[in-house]
Design goal:
about 130 residues, 4-stranded antiparallel beta sheet
């Protein structure tokens, strides 16, 4: 497991990678483009898949995309919506992936654990409701 976390030499260094420093002279090539719902979430990528959170209408989704193609792989939705004047629309959590499980905390307090292979719900808890009891 350490090899996966820290690189082949376990020193947090990946050699043989070269990135252009002048993107004006040498812009990156766009491989694909995919529309996603409103959110402030980042992507977590593991084993060729990228997972994020999105707001689409009245549904808050956790979505998984193929990194190489941008093609949607799976989505898990709950009916809830977060929107504020100051903060805008959508969830703010960047998913955490560990041992094949995806953990997310929605903007309305719904904590979920999903199976990373297919997005199936493993468990869910409404932490705001739990805290107000």
């Amino acid at each position: 497991m350490d090899r996966l976390l820290f690189g082949p030499d376990r020193n947090l260094v990946l050699t043989g990678i070269s990135l252009e420093r002048d993107w004006t002279a040498h812009p990156p090539r766009e491989l694909w483009r995919q529309s996603i719902g409103a959110a402030w979430s980042g992507f977590s990528a593991v084993n060729g898949f990228a997972v994020t959170m999105e707001q689409r209408g009245e549904e808050e989704l956790v979505t998984c995309y193929e990194v190489v193609t941008g093609k949607p792989r799976w989505a898990h939705a709950v009916t809830t919506r977060h929107e504020t004047v100051a903060g805008g629309i959508g969830p703010r959590c960047t998913p955490t992936i560990d041992d094949g499980l995806v953990y997310v905390l929605g903007a309305t307090g719904i904590l979920r654990c999903l199976d990373g292979r297919n997005g199936a719900l493993v468990w869910s808890d409404d932490i705001l409701r739990r805290c107000s009891v």
